[in-house]
């Protein structure tokens, strides 16, 4: 119970930091690391596919509703749900967690965003834009991945 509350608080703090600090940083490309995506991967790696999927869905819905939401509700929920499942299944197959596995899942999750946007007919997503933004998004997400996975592993009682 205490670990669930501490995980929820960590996710809430990450959401506030994401919206109020990271999204406002003047980084190249106008994008920032997605802390919530990395946390969904860490939860999936530490707790398995079911918990990763459910956590991804809930965290994604919260992220979808957080301002400035300019996309359809459920966009992040779908991506986070799939990513949490993938991370959890990776744990079940390998039997142990690692930062390399987390980074792979974060990369897959990052690449799912434009794919889902294109499937949903999001007019703001164009291949040229994806080609410029995706490498930066991957870089930023992979830079924060080891620290957040380690931190959430400590909170959840597992060492990745």
UniProtKB/TrEMBL annotation:
Gene: mreD
Leader sequence residues: none
Species of provenance: Bailinhaonella thermotolerans
Cellular localization per UniProt: Cell membrane
Gene Ontology biological process terms from the UniProt entry: regulation of cell shape
Keyword flag DNA damage: no
Family label: Belongs to the MreD family.
Segments crossing the lipid bilayer: 40-61, 73-91, 97-121, 133-153
InterPro entries xref list: Cell_shape_determining_MreD (IPR007227)
Bilayer topology annotation: Multi-pass membrane protein
Cellular component, GO annotation: plasma membrane
Keywords from the named record: Cell membrane, Cell shape, Membrane, Transmembrane, Transmembrane helix
Protein name (Swiss-Prot/TrEMBL): Rod shape-determining protein MreD
Keyword Membrane assigned: yes
């Amino acid at each position: 119970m205490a670990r669930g509350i501490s995980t929820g608080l960590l996710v809430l703090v990450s959401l506030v930091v994401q919206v109020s600090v990271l999204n406002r940083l003047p980084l190249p490309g106008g994008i920032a690391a997605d802390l919530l995506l990395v946390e969904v991967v860490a939860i999936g790696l530490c707790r398995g596919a079911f918990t990763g999927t459910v956590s991804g869905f809930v965290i994604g819905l919260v992220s979808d509703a957080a301002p400035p939401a300019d996309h359809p509700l459920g966009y992040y929920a779908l991506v986070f749900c799939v990513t949490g499942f993938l991370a959890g299944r990776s744990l079940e197959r390998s039997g142990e967690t690692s930062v390399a596995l987390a980074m792979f899942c974060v990369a897959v999750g990052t690449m799912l965003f434009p794919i889902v946007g294109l499937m949903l007919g999001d007019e703001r997503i164009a291949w040229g834009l994806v080609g410029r933004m995706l490498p930066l998004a991957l870089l930023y997400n992979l830079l924060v991945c080891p620290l957040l996975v380690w931190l959430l592993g400590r909170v959840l009682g597992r060492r990745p």
